[in-house]
Amino acid sequence: MIYLAHSVPEAFAERLAAKGAQVVRAGATYEESMAAAEKPRARRVIRFCRTVPGRATRNCPCG
Question: How far apart, in Å, are the Cα atoms of 24 and each of 11, 34, 50?
Fold first, then answer.
């Protein structure tokens, strides 16, 4: 996911999207788009699993 300010030319956003990027428009300036990009990161939960031989793993999202 790439956050771009509304001031970035649409042609650039289209080139990124053509390469498979999910483009999100946010803010009028670079700084505002970066601030918007940080918001989802604060809500994102990342789970890490580690399998230990001989021990069961509880609540592991990967099984």
Answer: 14, 11, 33
Residue 45 near residue 25, CB atoms below 8 Å: no
What are the residues whose beta carbons fall under 8 Å from the beta carbon of 20, sequence distance 6 or more? none
pTM score? 0.61
- Judge whether residue 5 has pLDDT over 60: yes
CB proximity list for 13: less than 8 A, separation 6 or greater: 4, 23, 25
Asked if 23 and 42 count as a contact pair (C-beta separation under 8 A), the reply is no
Per-residue model confidence as pLDDT tens digits over 14-42: 999 999 999 999 999 999 999 998 886 65
**Residue located via tokens 């940080």:** 38
